[in-house]
Amino acid sequence: MLSQKMQNHSFCTPSINHAHGAGILNLGEIMNVKRKIVEIDEELCDGCGNCVPACAEGALVIENGKARVVRDRLCDGLGACLGDCPTGALRIIEREAEEFDEAAVEEYLAEKEKGGRDGDFIHTGCPSAQIQRFNTKHTEQRAEDMGMVSESRSQLAHWPVQIMLVPAKAPFLKGADLLVVADCAPLAYANFHQDFLKGKAVMMGCPKLDNVEAYIDKFAQICQMAGLKSITSVIMEVPCCSALPMIVRKGMEKAGKKIPMEEVVIGTKGQIVERKKIH
Q: Model-level pTM greater than 0.90?
């Protein structure tokens, strides 16, 4: 019989309720190997859901108020979710488990994305951090039906948008043109959606109020893993804003990557003050 301590840990066991479609449960013979994998301490887990969007493979869900792993083969064991847990309930251990299966991950995420309509969730968890992808064509069609002019149509294609809430392995970052924007800029620049946001993934934050080192690490991870096509930073002309593109460049350097980058500075009256290419 398992000890009480062992019973209070979640060891990446199958959760049929969250396996959308039978695909990930029927991909042939299962091979167990000794490898690194996530362990969840139920005594420490408060069900906040912060870890869920941090797992780009969709291996984590909130179930009955606790974090759970959908299936061993969906967990890559790299621990991207660990830093987002405020209680330290997650850790990496080494044990016998199904081999990580990237094909199963792709199939699982595809099943969850089926339909592709606005508001479809890829993950569940804390509402502010739930990953969503929006079909902007549907948004534009609805806007046309309502008689809205093109300039007033939203071009936001995903959620979340805050730098600290977007996981480095978020699906919408893969191969994206990334827009990194200071919080105040969309308020100052009237045609922000059409001129800057359209066709891009977006991350926004404030270098004065947020954790600069955490930002650098986040952008280093993104530059390393996402295969970004380009980065555009949009900041205000105020001095504190100038740190944001510097943070992005430091993250890029830390990752050892060179990605085409453009920096745009917006004036407090809403005009473009400066626009320059970096790479």
A: no
Nearest to 167 by CA among 108, 125, 138, 199: 125
> Over the stretch 8-50, which tens digit does the pLDDT of each residue have?
444 444 433 444 333 444 444 567 899 999 999 999 998 888 8
The DSSP annotation for 208-275 comes to: TTS-HHHHHHHHHHHHHHS--SEEEEEEESSGGGGHHHHHHHHHHHHHT----EEEEEE-TTS-EEEE
Buried b (16+ CB within 10 A) or exposed e, 24-52: beeeeeeeeeebbbbbbbbebbebbbbbb
Neighbouring C-beta atoms of residue 121, cutoff 10 Å: 13
What pairs with residue 96 in β-bridges? 34
By DSSP bridging, strand 9-10 and strand 32-41 are antiparallel
List of domains in the chain: 4-108 (3.30.70.20), 134-277 (3.40.1050)
- Measure the CA–CA gap between 145 and 165, rounded to whole angstroms: 33
Report the alpha-carbon distance of residue 164 to residue 55 in Å, rounded. Answer: 14
